[in-house]
Amino acid sequence: MHVENFEESIAPIQWILGNLLLFLGLLVFIAILVRKYVQRIKEESKIKLSHQKALLESSIEIQERERNRIASEIHDNLIAQLYQVKLLNNEKELGSYITKSIQTARNISHELSPPLIENHTLEEMLEAFLFPLQREYNIHFFKSNTEGIVFDNTVKLHLFRIFQEVLTNIQKHAQTEKIDISLKITIDYVLLVIEDFGVGFKPENIQKGLGTKNIELRAKQIHATYKFKPNFPQGSKFMLVYDYTT
């Protein structure tokens, strides 16, 4: 075989191999581009999530700081002034109104900033909040914590605020005489169920209130899940699950 014929016979093979290498190189290049794009998207998502988490934490921190400031103003100034008025007052009937006003101010202060949160369990905090409501409502509070689980102050505060918000919504809107509450604490999770037997709600309107937004923010902060649903035969039910093993 002549050299010319040999070169002519391998030329198509070289062309095929050259194009194949070019195609493989193009695939590698595309794969590298796609990988970099995916990595960039992941990094941007992480930054976005980190930013959202920071905003969430900042929002709750500001809210708690403002609550504490107002509670301090009520406790240190308003209540003190009411006591001074009571001491200067000689009318028995007016004194009775002032005493009630002092108690109301104290209740508001405690609702805004729960006293001695570090020295009380979650169950005790909820019971303290329910105590004045028992004059207006027939409240049944079932609690179970057989393992004696104790939460840190941050978790207690978030769960207490959620509980407080749901009860406040019931007071404002439910038109009920009876409230059933169940708090179950196990080594894995917390289950909180709050039921009223009032007028209920429209599911499409449940997400519109500021109170519900606060519940959502605090639930996200501790990675808890919750939902509102109609109660049977009437009223509404709130259910929250906090799995603290994840």
Automatic annotation (TrEMBL):
<keyword id="KW-0418">Kinase</keyword>
<keyword id="KW-0808">Transferase</keyword>
<protein>
    <submittedName>
        <fullName>Oxygen sensor histidine kinase NreB</fullName>
        <ecNumber>2.7.13.3</ecNumber>
    </submittedName>
</protein>
